[in-house]
Structures are given as C-alpha cells and as structure tokens.
Specification:
This protein is an alpha+beta fold. It folds into 5 domains: 11-90, no CATH class; 101-208, Beta Barrel (OB fold (Dihydrolipoamide Acetyltransferase, E2P)), CATH 2.40.50; 214-481, no CATH class; 487-532; 536-655, no CATH class. It contains 19 helices and 19 strands. It has helices at 22-38, 43-63, 69-90, 149-154, 181-186, 211-226, 232-240, 248-257, 267-282, 290-307, 312-331, 336-350, 358-378, 386-413, 420-443, 448-473, 487-506, 510-532, 564-577; strands at 101-112, 119-130, 136-148, 160-169, 190-196, 201-205, 415-417, 479-481, 536-539, 546-550, 554-559, 581-586, 592-595, 600-606, 609-614, 617-622, 635-637, 646-647, 652-655. The strands form 4 sheets. Strands 13-14-15-16-17-18 form a 6-stranded mixed β-sheet, with no helix packed on it. Strands 1-2-3-5-4 form a 5-stranded mixed β-barrel. Strand 15 and strand 16 form a beta hairpin. Helix 6 runs antiparallel to helix 7 (232-240) and helix 14 packs antiparallel against helix 17 (487-506). It starts with 21 loop residues before the first helix and ends with a strand.
C-alpha cells in the first residue's frame, strides 16, 4: 500500500523511549495490572504495592522537582490501577453453572453454525433459569452449545427458545497436547456447555433475519453456487473466519506447513482488503481523492469486522489501519510502533480478557517483530534485481514476524513448521490473487457470465495454493514436534528473542546477538530432546479405556474398541508433544505384552475384566461404579467412576 502507508519509517520512531513510544509504557502498565488481577493478587496486596510505588514517585519528585518525567510515572501508575480494577470488574466472573444440572432455561441464540455436520456448534445467552427445586431467577450469561443437524437448520440467530438440558462447566480432558478449550472459551466469557436435540427445546419467539446474517448467508450461497464442494470450507474460512466446515486433513496440512494464519482472518486479510479496495478506488482519481478513498476503505473494513463479529486479531488490524491511515492523512504520523501499542491499549481497556486471547497475542507479536526487524533485515541483501529484491523483502517479512511469534507457537501448538519461509513466500505471492478474486466473485455474483469466469479462475488459484501447501506438508521433516513449554520457559524465551533483536538490530553487536540466537535455538533443542526421551505409559481420559506406551521412537497405542475418529484426534494431539511412529492395537481382539530393558507392560482380559500389569503392579480397569465391599486398592476407573486408585478424569502417567 505505497499510497496509504509510507513504510520508510524513521529508525528514531522505533526506539523504546518515553518521548517516542509512550504507549509502549502505558500498555505495559495496563498489562501489569491485568496480570496482577488474573493471578488473584489480593486487593490489599495490590494496594500495598501501589502505595510503595507512589511513595517512591513522590520522594523522587521532591528530590528532582525539575524533572517532568515524574508526571508520566504517575500516569503509568493510574493505568496500572485501571488494568487491575477493570479486570476485577470484567474479567473475573464465576459461572452460574458450577456443576452439572438439568435445567429449564430461556435462551437467546446469538450464533449458530449450519454446516450439515452431525453436531453443530453455537453460542446462546441464558436469560432465565428454573432449577429442579422450581427456583427461578434471571441472569445474562453466555453458554456454548452443540445441537444436531436438524436443529441447527431450524434455529437462527435471535431466536428465543425454552431449553431443557444439562448445562455443565467447560473442562479440559487433560490429555497430552490437547487444545486448551477451557482457556479459549473463558477469554470469550463462556464457561459452560450443553448438548441438545430437537426433542429438548421449544421455540418461544422467532427473530427476523438480521441484516448481518443475511449478508453471511448470501456470501455462503455464492460459494455453494459457484465453487466445488471441497473448496467451500476453505472459502468460508478465508472470508468469514468460519473453520467449522474445514476437513481435518486440510487443517493438518495448513498447520504443518505453517499457513494456518491464512485460514484465521487476521492482519494479512485486512491488509489485502485495504490494499485492494484503496488501489481500485485510486484508479478513478477524479471521483475519489486520497482522503475519500481512505474513508471508503476504512468504512468497508469496519463493516467487515462487524460482519465476522470482531475477533481480536481483526479488531487489532482494523483499529491499527484506521489510526495509521487517519494519522498519515492528517499529519503524516509514521510512528507505527507507538500506534500499535495505542491500539493494544484501547483494546485492553475495552476488554482485559483480550490479553489472554491466542489470536491477540500472536497478532501483536508478529506485528511488533515486523515493525522492529523488517527494515534492518531487508538491508542485509541490497540488489537492483527486482525479482530477487521482491523475494528477499517477503522473506524478511516472514523472518521478522516469526522471531517474536516463535515462543507462542511452541507454547500453544507444540510444533514448528520447518519450511515456514518457503510456505509464506507462496502464501504472500498467491494470497493477494485468491482474496482479490474471491471479493470479485462475491461482488459480481449476480452477473452470471462474469461470475462463472471469475469462479473458474478463483477455484484454480485456490487449488494451486492448497496444492502448494500440501506439497510442502508432504516434504521430509516438514514439521518439528515434541515441544511442551511451561509459562516460565515461555517468558524466558521471549526475553532471549528480545535480546536477539536488541544486540543484532539496535546495538549492532553481531557477536552478542549471535550468542543469544544460538542460546535460543539450543534451549529449544535441549527442551525437545528432554521431551522425546521421556519414556512412559500414559492412560488417557476417554469414554473407553485407552493408553499409549512411548519409547522415544514409537507410540504403541492400545484401546478398548474406541471410535476411530476419537483415536485419530487423540493421537494427533499426543504425537505433537511426543512424536514417533504410531502402532495402533485393539484390546477387544487380543492380549498384548510389551518388554523393554527394564519394564514389563501387559494388557489382557480376565473374567471379562480388562487387566493392566505394569512391572509388579496389577490393576483392574473399571467402567462402572464399585460397590462398597469391593477392594479398590488396585483399580483404574474411567472418568465417571469414583473411589478408585487411579481415576482417569485426566491423563495419568507411569514414568518408566
């Protein structure tokens, strides 16, 4: 976007100082208050810390009364208080559904996916509750729900329904490598879940189809009309942020190749939309001058963000583009880093839970890396060849974004795409064409002949992009697995990343910078080696007994006739943390005995009971609640079985 945002940013604007980047310090102050509240720091303790901070400020103020920086420190103090108490008010909420109950509720549907799956996801707001004891009270709390395909087609946003179903807290299964659903939904202020079918609800009142919903439905209808079935899921993800229709194979390919950000609407998409629309409008300079084109572009992206319900990464991008564009139009403000922290500050004031959102963290980390490192990296290779320069600039963009997102990727996803540079070269080159053609298809879908031609080109371009990503995913060692960081290691890794930036790009001390770079990669390698050398037997939290023996190279997975889809999902998550060759065996057909140098593991049936022997320890697997007179000293119970030696309400490890 050469006309909209001047990327020749003066290096002085990138310095972390109070004069050039004040909002970096404001952001840190608010974030410190949010963290203090989220770790349950008591108000009395926080007040004591605040009092000490103020005392130091007042003392230094009287000792050096001519230094006006004290006033800035007082402002930081006030922002820290804002972060703390705003989080106390908005962030720390306890669910009304602390334990599973059969409840009669009045709910308003605010979001529902209609993709024809057996179970479809949605979000509702509980308005009224009637308990078993006939106690009735009102509230306003979001819940996650899953409903059958017939009900998902019958219900729509805004419907008020009477629901009779069990509502229970969202909880993780506690299996290795699984997605932290409890944390994810908590950042969206959702802490409870329910399942229901057509027999469990009655529609109280129908809503009129909202304008936003009509637009979404029209876009989906365009895709259904003009695109092959296998491209519907990717197209819905690209333009509506709806990944519910994506096949697992496609998800795995994009994730392993390091292109998952293409399917989650973020700054890349918003930047492309801004560039495409602004450039098209500027083709008619007599009708649209720069300011008019900018205004129309910003109106479009804000309406688009509203259409897809303002996810944090999109909100960050739209807000930042708006501030950059307006600031540049009015006074030529080019301090992108300060503007970035200003947008982050606004978002955290609006909702402190954004700080815990994965998309928010990844989005801001990537942009910080780009702003700080992109220009210096491009100067490493100076050439007049336009093609080489173009490819190098894209590579510099990818490297700078990856530097600060690396710790988060390892922490949340436990894997790293080794060919991320090659992947993103193709993604950046082809995504503009794909997104542009998709926008044209949506805009011109009513003109049959033109829409048909655009759809053919779009479909071909999308096939080329997906095929390219699948080719990379199929390369040897395309993804490195086996990373399992804890929060302390995540913070240390971020500190090392910042040290790499500081010594290489700011202080230009290449030797020290290379030392910290080697320290970063060696710590990652050491952590991974420790992880994959962890030999163990793990018992999983599943609805039928399952376990895995890991010996650093192989995963011997045993299950008691578990559903194949559940096996696939379980092993995909587990293999991210403990990579190896997978061997699956069904305990319903045979007995198994594993012998290693120091351990013996045996799984067999005896008197219709499943037995597990680990060296000298012998356990019986129980599916049902035990009677009081039964010896429970050596029993393994499924998640719902109580009073047993090992209860599998989370994964249980035997370290070998």
């Amino acid at each position: 976007m050469p006309e909209l945002i001047d990327d020749k940013t003066n290096s002085e604007h990138l310095k972390f100082s109070m004069s050039t980047t004040p909002f970096a310090f404001v952001f840190i102050a608010i974030l410190s208050g949010i963290i203090a509240a989220r770790i349950d720091l008591q108000v009395s303790t926080w007040s004591s810390i605040s009092f000490v901070f103020l005392a130091i400020g007042f003392t230094s103020h009287f000792l050096a009364f001519k230094n006006n920086s004290h006033y800035f420190l007082y402002f930081l103090f006030l922002y820290a208080q804002l972060g703390y108490f705003n989080t106390q008010v908005k962030g720390i909420k306890h669910s009304s559904f602390s334990s599973a109950k059969y409840l009669k509720t009045n709910c308003e549907i605010i979001e529902i996916k209609q993709n024809g799956s057996k179970w479809n996801k949605g979000i509702a707001i509980v308005k009224k509750i009637k308990t078993k004891n006939n106690k009735q009270f009102s509230l306003h709390e979001k819940i996650l729900f899953y409903t059958d395909s017939a009900s998902s087609l019958d219900l729509r946003e805004g419907d008020l329904i009477f629901l009779n179903s069990e509502i229970q807290p969202i909880s993780n299964k506690g299996n290795p490598g699984e997605f932290n659903a409890q944390h994810y939904w908590k950042t969206k202020e959702i802490r409870a879940i329910t399942f229901f079918t057509a027999l469990d609800y009655k529609i109280i009142s129908r809503s009129q189809l909202k304008f936003k919903r009509k637009i979404k439905r029209n876009i989906i209808n365009v895709f259904h009309k003009w695109l092959p079935k296998e491209q519907l899921g990717i197209s819905k993800a690209l333009f509506l942020g709806d990944k519910s229709s994506l096949e697992q194979e496609t998800r795995n390919a994009y994730s392993a190749a390091g292109a998952m950000h293409l399917l989650a609407i973020s700054g890349l998409h918003i930047g492309l939309f801004v560039w495409i629309i602004f450039s098209l409008l500027r083709l008619l300079p007599r009708l649209f001058n720069r300011k008019a084109a900018l205004l129309i572009t910003l109106v479009f992206v804000w309406n688009y963000a509203y259409l897809i319900d303002f996810p944090p990464s999109v909100l960050r991008s739209v807000l930042m583009f708006s501030i950059l564009g307006i600031g540049h139009a009015i006074r030529g403000d080019k301090n992108q880093l300060n503007i970035l922290f200003f947008s982050a500050t606004l978002l955290l004031i609006y909702d402190p839970l954004y700080a815990e959102d994965i998309g928010f963290q990844l989005s801001y980390s990537a942009i910080i890396g780009i702003i700080l490192c992109y220009k210096p990296i491009t100067k490493w290779l100076l050439t007049k060849n336009r093609i080489i320069k173009f490819l190098w600039n894209i590579s510099a963009l990818c490297i700078s974004a990856q530097l600060f997102t690396l710790p988060l990727c390892l922490f949340y996803f436990h894997q790293f795409p080794n060919y991320f540079l090659i992947t993103n070269l193709g993604v950046v080159i082809m995504s503009g064409t794909v997104v542009g053609l998709g926008l044209l298809l949506i805009a011109l879908s009513k003109i049959t002949l033109i829409a048909m031609i655009i759809a053919q080109i779009y479909s071909f371009s999308l096939s080329v992009l997906t095929g390219y990503i699948q080719k990379i995913e199929g390369l040897p060692a395309s993804v490195a697995k086996g990373f399992n960081l804890n929060p302390r290691e995540l913070i240390i890794m971020f500190i090392i990343c910042f040290a790499v930036y500081l010594f290489i790009f700011r202080l230009r001390k290449l030797l020290l910078g290379c030392f910290f770079l080697c320290l970063l990669f060696s710590s990652i390698c050491v952590k991974r080696i420790q992880q994959i050398k962890h030999k163990h037997l793990v018992l999983f939290n599943t609805n039928k007994f399952s376990c895995a023996y890991y010996d650093s190279k192989n995963i011997f997975f045993f299950h008691d006739h578990l559903n194949p889809k559940k096996i696939e999902k379980l092993l995909i998550d587990y293999e991210k943390v403990y990579p190896g060759r997978i061997i699956v065996s069904d305990l319903e057909t045979s007995n198994y005995k594993l012998l290693s140098t120091a351990h013996v593991i045996e799984l067999k049936r005896k008197n219709n009971k499943l037995m597990l022997n680990v060296d000298d320890e012998r356990f019986t697997v129980e599916y049902n609640q035990l009677k009081n007179n039964i010896d429970t000293t050596k029993t393994i119970g499924l998640p719902w079985v109580e009073n047993v030696t090992i209860r599998l309400d989370k994964a249980y490890f035997f370290n070998l």
